[in-house]
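> call design_seq(struct)
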């Protein structure tokens, strides 16, 4: 566990977030004219020497990471772009994390008291294992926090709500609380991650069936050379999770500390840093705040 991640802190109550909404400054950042008054994603991609893709959005970053361990933190939120995040992940901005990108990971607990665990999707190559933890265990759902000027509740729970429906399925969900923060190491995405607990009315079997169906349909349309836009429209019509491929297959882990601890101890080589970190934090949380 210690080689994959470290728990920074647990929360006894939800922290406060203040949306400042400024373009974050960081080492080796391209000229601000590529960001303001409107982001030029094409030129920004070119400036970093990255391959073009369709992932274009603003991402939330924490501008006062020194507050992480404060007794009553007030986290200030600014933004970078998804292009900056790709550049950082490919180490084009140096080995040290250039900014504190916000990411949220959910500990999803099913109706039958199972924790949702999945094998992270994508092609399994040495490079992708290190960068994205493809083929390794991770908790679902999870993802980068999109920057918004206004959130319904807060950046973390809003993200978990959206990611649940995009990765898990169209089930009832309640995000009960933000549990804590940890830092993830390689393999997989690195940096600071917030963890939240999610309860759903779905059983593990229902989630697995939805995941298998969605990935089967996705594979069939990919063979037909369907576009990403067309596949998204089909999934919306069928009410299937568009990002089910991010964790496949889905397995369940009994929601008790003994099972979780044993699972990590037996096969630490199969875990991503973000997977081990989220599960380890959850174990600490239930030891500290739950009977």
């Amino acid at each position: 566990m210690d080689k994959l991640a470290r728990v920074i802190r647990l929360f006894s109550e939800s922290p406060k977030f203040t949306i400042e909404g400024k373009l974050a400054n960081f080492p080796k950042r391209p000229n601000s004219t590529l960001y303001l008054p409107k982001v030029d994603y094409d030129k920004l991609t070119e400036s970093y020497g990255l391959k073009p893709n369709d992932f274009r959005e603003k991402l939330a970053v924490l501008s006062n990471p020194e507050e992480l361990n404060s007794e009553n933190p007030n986290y200030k939120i600014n933004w970078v772009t998804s292009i900056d995040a790709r550049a950082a992940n490919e180490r084009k901005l140096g080995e040290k994390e250039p900014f504190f990108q916000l990411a949220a990971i959910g500990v999803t607990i099913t109706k039958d008291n199972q924790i949702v665990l999945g094998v992270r999707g994508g092609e399994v190559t040495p490079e992708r294992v290190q960068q994205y933890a493809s083929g390794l265990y991770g908790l679902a759902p999870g993802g980068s926090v999109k920057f918004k000027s206004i959130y319904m509740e807060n950046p973390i729970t809003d993200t978990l709500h959206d990611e649940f429906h995009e990765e898990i399925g169209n089930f009832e969900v309640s995000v009960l609380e933000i549990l804590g923060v940890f830092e993830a190491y390689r393999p997989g995405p690195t940096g600071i991650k917030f963890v939240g607990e999610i309860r759903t009315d779905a059983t593990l079997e229902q989630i697995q069936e939805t995941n298998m169906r969605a990935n089967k349909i996705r594979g069939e349309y990919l063979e037909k050379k369907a576009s990403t836009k067309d596949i998204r429209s089909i999934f919306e019509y069928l009410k299937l999770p568009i990002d089910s491929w991010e964790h496949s297959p889905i397995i369940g882990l009994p929601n008790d500390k003994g099972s979780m601890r044993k699972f990590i101890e037996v096969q630490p080589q199969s875990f991503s840093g973000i997977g081990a970190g989220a599960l380890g934090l959850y174990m600490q949380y239930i030891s500290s705040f739950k009977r």
